[in-house]
Amino acid sequence: MTGVFLILGGAAFGGILNVAALRRERPSEIVVLFRFVRIAVRAISLGMVLTLVFGLWLVGDLDFVKWSNTWVILALILWVVANALGGAGGRREKETRKLAERLAAEGDGRSAELRARMRDRLTLALSWGSGIVVIAILALMIWKPGH
Amino acid sequence: MLAILRPDSWNLALFLHVLGATVLTGATAAALVCAVNEARWPWLRLVVARTLLLAVFPAWILMRLGGAWEDSKSPIGDNSTWLGIGYLVGDAGFVLLIVATILGAVAVRRPQRTWPIRTVAVITGVYFVALLVAMFAMTGKPGS
């Protein structure tokens, strides 16, 4: 459960600061918020490792949970999907942060390019999609379909 | 074991409670980080005020209502210490969050005053630690 808290809490933390960054215009302000988001990225990464390690341990240790249970298989697939989506979205956001850092160092003026990258639909879909998949994993762990 | 044996009719309440609690913890941490750093970047006061009003409060409502709904269905934990800790952190948190939200708005409207945002930083810091204690108590269920 600590892992789940780190993932979902980190996602909420990062999501809130990402939305706040969308409302700012100056590159230096966006850089500050994106640097805070890195705290969330670390928490989510740690949470992902904890949920996988302790989740697999529990499945192996508990007699009433089987590797063949539908919800166990689906949870593992969604864990991979969430990592893939979050990783791809994170790489694109890292590029946006680097652009914001460069613009901040070059006079900190408003930039149409930065504004467009901040609102890039694919990046937003990847990042928010990853969060939705993690919520789906939580739902699987509670409802346990096929158990 | 209890999670496996839990009736299906409890699932939605538990899901909403856990989802609300995790978002509440993350949103409180976001408000705390911004409040702590506002001296260097004063525009973060607006982020703090909006986060408290639009993220922390709705998450608290989801966590608290989901928890009350779950507790009304389930006899598990009645009169236990871990459930008492959950209620204490939940209900005392409501008062703390009201104070923090009001002070967050004051900090935005009166930028020359520093004490409101500093108080918000202290309150969100205390509440964040309290949420971690509640998380440990509710998930580990010590003493049961």
Number of domains of chain B: 1
Give the termini distance of chain A in whole angstroms.
Answer: 20 Å
Q: H/E element string of chain A? A: HHHHH
Through-space gap between termini of chain B: 13 Å
Strand content of chain B: under 5%
Shape of chain B: elongated
Largest sheet of chain B: none
Helix-strand pattern of chain B: HHHHH
Helix fraction of chain B by DSSP (H/I, runs of at least 4) = over 70%
Number of E-type strands of chain B:
0
How large is the radius of gyration of chain B?
Answer: 17 Å
Low-confidence stretches of chain A: none
Q: Kindly name the structural category of chain A.
A: mainly alpha
Q: Could you name the ranges of chain B where pLDDT drops below 50 across 5 or more consecutive residues?
A: none
Note the main sheet of chain A: none
From the alpha-carbon coordinates, what is the Rg of chain A to the nearest angstrom? 18 Å
Overall pLDDT level of chain A: 92
Approximate strand percentage of chain A: under 5%
Helix content of chain A: over 70%
Continuous helix count of chain B:
5
Classify the oligomer. Answer: heterodimer
